[in-house]
Amino acid sequence: MASKQLNDIVYSVLDLATVVQGKTPADTFRNSMAVAQQAEQLGYTRYWFAEHHNMPSVASSAPPVLIGYIAGGTKTIRVGSGGVMLPNHAPLVVAEQFGTLATLYPDRIDLGLGRAPGTDQVTAYAIRGENMHAANNFPKDVARLQTLFSADNWDGKVRANPGEGLDIPIWILGSSLDSARLAAEKGLPYAFASHFAPAYFLEAIKLYRENFKPSAQLQSPYVLACVNGVAADTDEEAERLATSVKQLFIGVVTGKRTLLPPPVDSMDDIWNFYEQEAVEQMLHYSFIGSPQTIKNDLKNFVDYTQVDELMITSHIYDHEARMRSYRIFADVLTADV
């Protein structure tokens, strides 16, 4: 297996539009624009938003709206969904929304598709109603979307205007083997949610690569791994900054969700043994530390997984510290190795 260099890796941003304590979603969106504009300058390839609902700390409930906002404030970086939870929406509506975005911002829009509801079951019912089993139709709905985007659908009874005939890259997102099989079967790029669901990551990307069938969109398998990233000038400062995301994930584990809290000097009095075990398992693929530590850890990760792209998500309380973290990752990933 050939060794990959860090400067061979495409690098991107996943933004969950995290709301921090003492701030509002309006503050979050302004900060997202600043991060996206900096990311564009630093050579990040894409900037994605993920669809979530009924989560006070996550303001990305409407990815197409945020995609339009960020694309309008940038010039070259690709902007997209990581992802749109397709069973929550009619394929025609998604095709029209992303067709509109791709018409406004040509060759810059990505459409990542997920199967999960992006929320709890009660909220999922509020979204889907009697269509609660829509996830079973996910493969067919992906195919419907591909048809709606196709120029060959010009004589179809249902057409996406705008959307028809546009070259909008579709990605399959997932955290399971089912998503890997679908991405392989359809010959689509595969983005794995290893930033919070690491359990099946290695097995899924192996299955995807071994079963990949070339398509018009993609000739060979392409793996994107989403990971957590907290970089600072020293390991100690990075570890301190990372206590914010650890506290946030305690809320995920316990169901007691809060806005992103400020960092603390020690987690010892905040979590118990079981919460710590659960949080650390979910955050297994996290890169926390100084530039040298980040470089070493990323090199090992890339050598072992052979991923094609890293998508970094950073839950950092202080906006300037978050901006600094993304600058460090860009420096590490573009330096001669």
Automatic annotation (TrEMBL):
It comes from the Bacteria. InterPro entries: Bact_Lucif_Oxidored, CmoO-like, Luciferase-like_dom, Luciferase-like_sf. Residues 21-300 form the Luciferase-like domain. CDD domains: Flavin_utilizing_monoxygenases. Gene3D superfamilies: Luciferase-like domain (3.20.20.30). To bacterial alkanal monooxygenase alpha and beta chains. NCBIfam families: oxido_grp_1. This is LLM class flavin-dependent oxidoreductase. It comes from Mucilaginibacter gynuensis.
